[in-house]
Amino acid sequence: MDKDIATPLRTRAILERYGFSFKKSLGQNFLIDTNILKKIVSFAELTDHSGAIEIGPGIGALTEQLARLSKKVVAFEIDQRLLPILADTLAPYDNVKVIHSDVLKADVQQVIAEEFTEFEDIVVVANLPYYVTTPIIMKLLEERLPIRGIVCMLQKEVADRISAVPGTKDYGSLSIAVQYYTEAETVMIVPKTVFVPQPNVDSAVIRLTKRESPAVKVKDEQFFFQVTKACFAQRRKTLLNNLTSQLADGKRKKGEILSALETSGIEPSRRGETLSLAEFARLSDELYHYFH
């Protein structure tokens, strides 16, 4: 087996050979620590029956580790300049397919149907470009893909928000959106020093395990998310004030919002960060009567 791609020396040699320069606009930070890559992959608990989807393979450092432990890897790469590099670095692995595409525009459902027929276990494992972490995660969850979960590296600050619990400063509409679909846990903190170029922020690995069915049952999913967003519009404001300014036109609906809060057993003076998912579900179902 060839030497690991993810050593500082080999990474530098590959980049020099291809005259590759990092594009800030694509959030390119490559991992140069094999132990950390192996740890990330271990959190995905892959077997030789698993399919792995990767986003932003870079020069193939993580892809290689995934290829060794899973049956097949499909990686989405947006940067055309990396395709010849990947063709070279991943040549030893015949179970990898690289798709030149922006995952946010790709039909991932279709790709899974074509590339992973008869696969029962599919996991997304990625070192995500930091500037589009949230849209990528939300796309993967909202499209209800047949995946077991997501293990990804992202900004520590975003990981904190995703896995936050009620009553903490990091808890917000992102925590609720992700935890609605998955069980979220931050499994590892990663120092800046293991990347080239070094990012300005600390990183973390988060594991999202898809729930059999959403955490709470709601009348209208879209409206539920609209309500949670409204409740966090201005963190210092009370639920009543946020909901009135976000959902109501003028004072017309203030009374209705009050009565929905009352029926849900939620104090109007509380703030969004104190509500559990179950309370948000109750509240959005009560408000739904008035706004539809």
Question: What distinguishing features does this structure have?
Answer:
seven-stranded mixed β-sheet, alpha/beta, 292 residues, 12 helices, two-stranded antiparallel sheet, single chain
Provide a compact summary of the structure:
It is built from 12 helices and 9 strands.
Question: Can you offer a commentary on this structure?
Answer:
With 292 residues, the chain is α/β, with parallel strands linked by helices. The protein is 40% helix and 18% strand. It is built from twelve helices and nine strands.
**Which regions contain 5 or more consecutive residues with pLDDT less than 50?**
none
Largest sheet: 7 strands, mixed
Strand order of the largest sheet: 4-3-2-5-6-9-7
Q: What proportion of the residues is helical, as a percent range?
A: 25-40%
Describe the protein's topology.
Elements: H1 8-18, E1 30-31, H2 34-43, E2 50-55, H3 61-69, E3 72-77, H4 83-89, E4 96-100, H5 108-115, E5 121-127, H6 133-142, E6 149-155, H7 156-162, H8 173-181, E7 182-190, E8 195-196, E9 203-210, H9 221-231, H10 239-247, H11 254-263, H12 277-291
Parallel strand pairs: 2-3, 2-5, 3-4, 5-6
Antiparallel strand pairs: 1-8, 6-9, 7-9
Helix pairs in contact: 2-3, 6-8, 9-12, 11-12
